[in-house]
Amino acid sequence: MLVLLPPSETKHPGGGGAPLDLSALGTPELNPLREQLVAAVVGLAADVRAARAALGLSPAQDGEIARNAALRCSPTMPAIERYTGVLYDALDVRSLTRAQRRRAAGRLAVGSALFGLLRADDAVPAYRLSAGSSLPGLPALRSLWKPVLTDVLAGVDDLVVDLRSGAYAELAPVPGAVTVQVLSERPDGTRAVVSHFNKAHKGRLARLLATTTAEPDSVVRLRALLRRAGLHVEHDGGTELTLVVPAAAVTR
Length: 252
Hints:
The protein is α/β, with parallel strands linked by helices. The chain has one domain (2-249). It is built from 10 helices and 10 strands. Strands 1, 3, 4, 6, 7, 8, 9 and 10 form an 8-stranded mixed sheet that branches. It has a two-stranded antiparallel sheet with strand order 2-5. Helix 6 packs across helix 9. The longest helix is centred in the first third of the chain and has 14 residues, at 31-44. The radius of gyration is 18 Å and the shape is globular. The two termini are 27 Å apart.
């Protein structure tokens, strides 16, 4: 099973690993495009005003541009520890046992605008580039990534659970992947799509899938696994699951 996570705009700073080495990352067939994008991001950082415009940053965020300027020489840390935010707080990989962490390393991956696909333990520096960013002189990131990344993801033999947000899923859709919609249910039975706290519920779901000893190989078996874990999951056919949470649990 491969669980695809969205990245986050914010990153943990620092790290104890050696500087970025693209040859050490998984899926080496992505390296030519990775190198092109790294060069573009580093070069863009030399023009602070242009970088602000391209990356959608304010002057108060110039530190993000400085990170990009140092992208090739900054310390690294495992990708799954680099990203921050609601989803990653709920995933909480640093609290996993050694056995759980080994299992998670084999199952979790992050969709990245800069690196395309990162396995959990791929060592990366802090950087700033979003799926919607426009790098001067280059086509849209979706146009760049889709031809190469789609083939990589299509070649995954395991069940793919795609928890990426819309913009990152569009970089390279995965035919046949299981997707998850999160709905809140009020006491009167009415339902609504969960927006912000959708990330927290998907983070908890990712933690469960990363650490379970089960190996679901279909959407039906995945649904059964989640139901055994006490989750209210509905499946109306196809490859989408609906996770229904009480409205009172939406903010937790």
